[in-house]
Amino acid sequence: MTGDVRKEKKGFLDRTTSLVQRNKTLLIVAVFLATMPLWAKPLSEPLGIDIIYVMRLVGVFAIAAVGLNLLMGYAGQISLGHGAFFGVGAYTTALLTVKAGLPVWLGIICAVIVAAIVGLLVAPVLRLKGHYLAMATLGLGIIAFVCFREFVWLTNGHDGVRNIPNLALPGLEITTRLGEYFLVWVVALIVLALCSNLVRSRVGRAIKALHQSEVAAAAMGINVSWQKIKIFMFSTALAGLAGGIFAHLQGYIDPGSFNIILSIELVVMVVVGGMESIWGSVAGAALIVFLPEFIEAIPSWLGEVPHWVERYSLYEGIIFGLILVLTMIFMPSGITRGLSDMVRYRKSPFVNPFKKKVVE
Amino acid sequence: MDNGSYLLEARELTKTFGGLAAVKDVSFQLQEGIIKAIIGPNGAGKTTLYDLLTGIYQPDQGSVTFHGQQIIGLPTHEITVLGIARTFQTIQLFPNMTVMENVMVGLHHRTKTGMFKASFRLPSANKEEAWAKGEALGYLDIVGLEMQADSMAGALPFGQQRLLEVARALATGPRVLLLDEPASGLNLYETQELGEIIYRIRDMGVTVILVEHDMGLVMRISEEVLVLDYGEIIAEGTPGEVRDDPKVIEAYLGSELE
Known about the structure:
The structure holds two protein chains of two kinds.
Chain A: H1 12-22, H2 24-47, H3 51-74, H4 82-98, H5 104-122, H6 130-150, H7 152-155, E1 168-169, E2 172-173, H8 177-199, H9 202-212, H10 214-219, H11 224-250, H12 260-273, H13 278-301, H14 313-330, H15 335-345
Antiparallel strand pairs in A: 1-2
Helix pairs in contact in A: 2-8, 3-8, 3-11, 3-12, 3-13, 4-5, 4-6, 4-11, 5-11, 9-11, 12-13, 13-14
Chain B: E1 8-17, E2 20-30, E3 35-39, H1 46-53, E4 61-66, E5 69-70, H2 76-82, E6 84-86, H3 99-106, H4 115-120, H5 123-143, H6 158-171, E7 176-180, H7 188-203, E8 207-211, H8 215-221, E9 224-229, E10 232-237, H9 239-244, H10 246-253
Parallel strand pairs in B: 3-8, 3-9, 6-7, 7-8
Antiparallel strand pairs in B: 1-2, 1-4, 4-5, 9-10
Helix pairs in contact in B: 3-5, 3-6, 5-6
C-alpha cells in the first residue's frame, strides 16, 4: 500500500484535536469526577449520603465491571463467578501486606498477577458454552468462597484479615477519603481508557467476532480458544485489581465479602449499565453501588419514617430488585444505551415492552 | 502437469453422520489458478466437503494435502493461515460490526497487534491499524462495497452481505478460496456481477472452488466441474463434458425409465 509514501506530518494541534475527539467521553467523565468534590460536599449533607465515600467504591466496582464486560458483553462468555477473582485479588494483597509486610503498591500488583494466573488455571471451563459456562463459573465462585472460609491457616477463615494498611503510592500513604477517591479514580480512568482502546483494536474485533460466530472467527484465522483464554485472563486480572484496591479501602476483609452475591452484582452492573459498552459499566457500577445508599437514605429525607414502614430495612431489598427489574424491562440494552439514544435521536429512553417487534 | 504440482489434493475422503455417508471416497485434484465448480443436488455433500477441507469436521478417513502439506487434523484457524479461505452458505458475517471491521477481522492473522500494544495505542499499533484500514478498503473495492465501508454489516441487503463474505475471506490472503453458494439469493444482475468478481479474484492469483446451484453461472465461468451425488463423485470434467454426462442428467432429473 502507498500509505507510507505520503506520510502526513500532522501538526501538534491536529493531533491534540483527534486525541480529544477520540476520548471525548473519557474527558467529560474525568472533568465531572475532578470537580465532584466541590459540589458533592454540600449535596452530601441534605441527601444523607457521603458521596465521596461511596464514589470510591463505585471506582473499584467500575474496574471489575468493565473487565467483566469485556468478557461478557464483547466476547460473549458469561461468568457468574467473577467475585472469586475479586476475592483472590483482595486476599492476595491483604495477606502479602499484613503477613509479609510488602508495600501496598506491590501487593496490588501481585493481586493482579495472581488473579490472572488463577484465571489461566480455570480457563478450561471456557470450552463450555452458554448456560453450561454460566453453571461452571457459578461453581468456581462457590469453590473460591469455600476456600476463603476453610483455608484458615492462610486466610484466618471467618475472622478475616484485619488491619490492612491504607492505600499508598511508593513513599506516600493516603489517609484521607478525598485522597483515596482521587487515587481510585485515576486508576479506574486509566483502566477504562485502556479497555476502550482495546475494544477498538484488532483484539477487540477478534473477541467481538468470536462472540457472533465462532466458526466464522476461526475461518478468519482467529485462534478462538486461545483468544477466549486471553480475554478471560485480562478480565480476571482487572477483577483482581479491583479486589486489591477494595481490600485497602476497607481495611478488613472476610469471606462474606466475596460470596456469590458479589458475582451476581458484577453481572448486574454489566447488564444494567449496558453490554458491549465501556462507559455503561461505570454507569452500572454507580447505579448498583448508589442505589442501596439512596434507598437507605429515603427515610431521612422524609424526616420521620411513617409508622407502617417501621421496619424499613426489610423493604430495601424489594425496592432494589424492583428498580432492576423495571430497568431491564424498559431499557433492555442498558441505561447508557437508553440515555444516549435519547440524546442522539431525541427519542424516549424507554422501550415499550408490550409492543410487538417488527421482524427485520 | 505432473502429480506434485497440484495445489490441493484430496484422497478418499469419507465422512459419515450416524451411518449415513455425507461424503464417500471423494478424491480430486486442484490445479493452481483455475476456477473449479462443485455441483450436485441438495444434500450431495458439498458443504460437508468444504467443512472437511477447512477443519470444521474431521474425516473418518482420507487425506488432504495442500501445497504438499497434510492438513487433515489441523484446526480451522491454522488452515486459514496456510491459505484456504471460505465463505458460508448461511451467511456468517459479524452483523454488529461495520463492513470495514468485518474485512479487518479477515486481516487478523496478517496483523500482530496484541493486547498490550492495542490497549496503550502504541505507535506501531496505530501504524498497523492504518495499514489494515487501507488493505480492507482495497478488498472492499474488489467486490464493489467501498462506499458501504461504515455501514453495519447486518444492515446490508442480502446480495451485498454475500459479497462482503467474499471480501472478508479474501482479506485472509488465501491461495484457495472456497465459495459456498455465493449466488444463492442474488438476482440476475447481481449474479452477473459476481461472475466478474470471481474472474477478478482468479486474476489476482487465487484459485477458486465454487459450490453453486446456479448452472448458468457454473457453466459460464468454471474451467472444471465436479459433480457429487449422495456424497460420491459421479462425474468430473469440463462444463461441456459434464453437461452431457448421462449420470449427471440422471442425478438432476431422475432416470428416464422408472
